[in-house]
Amino acid sequence: xxxxxxxxxxxxxxxxxxxxxxxxxxxxxxxxxxxxxxxxxxxxxxxxxxxxxxxxxxxxxxxxxxxxxxxxxxxxxxxxxxxxxxxxxxxxxxxxxxxxxxxxxxxxxxxxxxxxxxxxxxxxxxxxxxxxxxxxxxxxxxxxxxxxxxxxxxxxxxxxxxxxxxxxxxxxxxxxxxxxxxxxxxxxxxxxxxxxxxxxxxxxxxxxxxxxxxxxxxxxxx
Length: 222
Ligand code: DC
Known about the structure:
The protein is of the alpha/beta class. It is built from nine helices and eight strands.
């Protein structure tokens, strides 16, 4: 493969995007960029600074002194906010619960979209999120829209949270995921939606390896 491609992987929460995107980036020796981690990092900082989460002006002010950086690691990436390691802190149920509200604010979307476009400018990147194929990288050569049923996604999040030592209720997770989908799909700016030229991959009954193989086949045809 001569050209270093832009690969966009979008889809709802817990559809398997980050696991799959990491493996594809590693196979191709590309950069992996988890854009959800950026929205989570802003949410973590806003909660810490007690910024009202839907106050766009206050969030713009917060963003002006927030430096979010990724340090590539063997198993993914370390996330830093103003040099502080927040890799674990941005994955708590509290951040998950509030991130959709922050991600709906225009100043946050504009700042993070610009940052993501800068990261992808030379290609050789697998970027996962909600609006990569539609807004961030509309000219990406490969666009995948990854989905799975709400039940299956809640179960995956449940297992992940348990492994991290969080006590969670499966039923509650299911309704939180459904609510997050609704918020992500219905927001005014860059809602979660499948790009017209994206390929739909349903992961409900597929293993991670099967999904990775399927996407690698699509990439090889480019
Ligand atoms: O993929 P995730 O669960 O870590 O994403 C966290 C939130 O960030 C999710 O609720 C929607 C938002 N998000 C977004 O709006 N746009 C992106 N490109 C990535 C994530």
